[in-house]
User: Fold these one by one.
Assistant:
Number 1:
Amino acid sequence: MKKFVYIALCFASNAFWAQEKLTLEKCYELVEKNYPLAKQNNLLQSQAELQTKILEKDKLPKIALNAQATYQSEVTQVPFSIPNATIEPLSKDQYRATLDVNQLIYSGGAIKAQTQLKSSQIKAQQQVVEVNLYQLKSQINQYFFGLLLGQEKQELLLAKRTLLLEKSKEIQAAVKFGAVLPASEQVIEAEIIKINQQLNEVKYDQLKLWQHLEALSGTTFNTNAKLAIPKHFTSEANAIRPELELFALQNQQIEASQKVIATTNAPKLNAFLQGGYGNPALNMLNNSFETFYMTGIRLNWTLFDWNKTKKEKEVLEISKQLIASEKETFEVNQKRQLQEINFEIGKIEDQLKSDAEIIQLREKIVRSADAQMKNGVITSSEYLNEVTQLFESKITEQTHRIQLFLAKANHQIIKGI
């Protein structure tokens, strides 16, 4: 039963990919969802929630159990005697066990600043993941349009083979009646075999590209699936590359670090309670085991740290300058890449205009060659040469067309989508 269900699911999957055209946007979506790196976003979010909970724990009372046993060479003694009274000296071996409770009352904004810093760090790390996933889109473009070009080549080769098979039947009839020599038929048959070789080569190139796309998307595709030719390429005027968002988040992280440093030397106020049992207890003159307790508040305030915080702030300012430099470098490279891709798009568009003119002329030549071959003016080899040049022109046109799609898709990636 399980085997039957598995086979049914396989057939259903194949039927889906055979009927549904695979789009470039769907490939982007699958990679963003299934690529192993994408899992880090959820992990980072879980990490952020845990770190926030950890910092919140600092607001709760801290309870500690302490115990010690010591032996000392000297003990405190009374340097005089009291009439009619005996003062027993302290034991050199002393014992103490305490339970200490500390409650933070005021942290000088340290906990809030540290929480904001952790949050900004996680956001920056998540954006790094987004940047890495975004950079995969260029690879997806290469594989997707490589597959699309292969499908277009395959269709043209099949059309050429169909045409030659029809001509082969015509020539067979002519050979039968002695109108042409048998060699004419053999020339066509040899070309059909060559086309089959080319189709086989395209097939294996396609399989390799499908495997690359499957590895990125974590999805098994039917290799017979048709790819949808993108109709529109738009790049929003206000589009922002994820790298620019990363630079902004890195600056926010530095600002959060500055706030943490600012709270380092702020006053900290704690309430404490200590209860214990020991010998001696709080009365150092009583040489016996007693219980005791002590409560109060404690203020900690670093008044001078030898300019440590000042230097730390200077380090962060340098980090800001480094980020600004990285951003400027990125924007310069982005502008250069856009200029190059725009030049490439213009060049291919001009080539396509010439391709259309060439194909029109080649189609006229083939029609003329077909009539000439039927009338015995030219040989089948000469006719075949014209047919081959026509289909090579069509393949060249399709190659340029796919290259134009690829260039426009890359333009979107460079600009930001």
Number 2:
Amino acid sequence: MGGADTLIAAARTGDEAAWAELYRRHAGRLELWLRWLPASDAAVSAEDVAAQAWLTAAGKVHDFSGSDDDFAGWLFGIARKHALNDYRRGVRRRTSPAELDSGAQPVFGVPGDDLSPIEGQDTVRRLLGHLSPREAEVVVCLDVVGLDVAATAEALGLRTTAVRVAHHRALTRLRRLMADDAPGEPTPEPQG
């Protein structure tokens, strides 16, 4: 085992500092990525799924055979499986969020009328809605979260070539949509 794999080796022994460093490197982008995945149950947050993934990773780190650099793809793959299970469970239960109280706290933590961050997210979500689910996941992994191609392939259970092809097709489609989305023209509706 080389020097590049010292974090994983230390994590296998239960070293808290190694786990803290792995968490520092991956927790933020893992939660960001999970927020972009489809959710069917408002009671399950991205933080909940991330916590499940970290617990699973801690329990299975002895089965992990990759390097420190491979850890992100492995962790994201675990999180994706947990998210899919939660999604399926939510569809079976058919839960829905409660209505928001109009006199409650600011929506999404945005005070007053400054909704521009939310509108920006809505625009990105609308554009991603024009892509196939695979293409949208690839774009979010690579361009929103910042995973590399190998980690994206591991996380999504794809080959690296399939990731590159899906990314190319997605960006081509998004460029065309943005070019067609000129002022004064109606915005195209997302596909099925």
